[in-house]
Amino acid sequence: MSEVSPFFEIDPHWDHENEPSELAANVVENHRRFVRGRRVFNTHLPLALMPRVVDDEDDKNKNRKLPKVVYVARDGRDCAVSFWHHLKSQSVEDGGWSEGWDTFFESWIEGTIAFGSWFDHLNGWRDASADANVLVLKYEDMLHYLPGTIRAVAEHVDRDRPLTTDELDAIERACTFEAMKGDIDKYQPKSVRWIDDSFSFVRRGVSGSYEKVFSENQKRRFEEKAREKFGGGGLANAPMWRTNA
């Protein structure tokens, strides 16, 4: 996965010899080999930092728009737990976390953790939720309605090339949690060093795991922060995450 869909914002994936910087040669080659020349990336960037593209170089106005984006949103409480397991299994030199859950929660809830605030990220992407180039998916829907999710992504990427039934079935089989867990070498990121050999990037594949990790006080503080950031309805009003509710 690190070869097919590398992280957009990490330095090793760019060649800084020229100005402006260009994609590193290995990224360009991997895209040519694996995805027929399409450029595919993972990113945690806020909307304000996302690159824009010009479809028509002859367009005098050079109207710039977002590339095709699939925005995957997840319940922030589960995001926090998942991110904690990720960072505490990663080397500190590569941005890992060496302290306990309670300390992590304080940094996460205040948005001082790597990639910033979950709340601000959703709010920041609010204006793009109606953009035709942006498909919003919920992690929870991916768990429970995988075939529909696959079709939505395929139509978003190329509406003129619908999936056949056989293709849909093959992709569904390959994208179940069990299949991905069984082929973990394909999905484990290679851009960081891991200090916990038992850690699997495809870890549990469930929703609601925060219930066993968050204290009652932490649950209350999350709800308070959600109301502060999203309004009186709290999580129910969260942009992006509520889109497919």
Distinctive features:
245 residues, Rossmann fold, 9 helices, 37% helix, globular
Structure description:
The chain is built from nine helices and four strands, in the order ββαβαααβααααα. The longest helix is centred in the last third of the chain and has 15 residues, at 216-230. The mean pLDDT is 84. It is globular and about 50 Å long. A hairpin with a 6-residue loop joins strand 1 and strand 2 (22-23). Helix 6 packs across helix 7 (165-175). The two termini are 29 Å apart. It folds into two domains: 1-43, no CATH class; 44-237, P-loop containing nucleotide triphosphate hydrolases (Rossmann fold). Helix content is 37%, strand content 6%. The strands form two sheets. Strands 1-2 form a two-stranded antiparallel sheet. A two-stranded parallel ribbon has the order 3-4. It has 245 residues and is mainly alpha-helical.
Structure in a nutshell:
The protein is mainly alpha-helical and 245 residues long. It is 37% helix and 6% strand.
Proper CATH architecture of the largest domain: 3-Layer(aba) Sandwich
Computed CA radius of gyration, to the nearest angstrom:
19 Å
CATH topology assignment of the largest domain: Rossmann fold
The CATH homology group name of the largest domain:
P-loop containing nucleotide triphosphate hydrolases
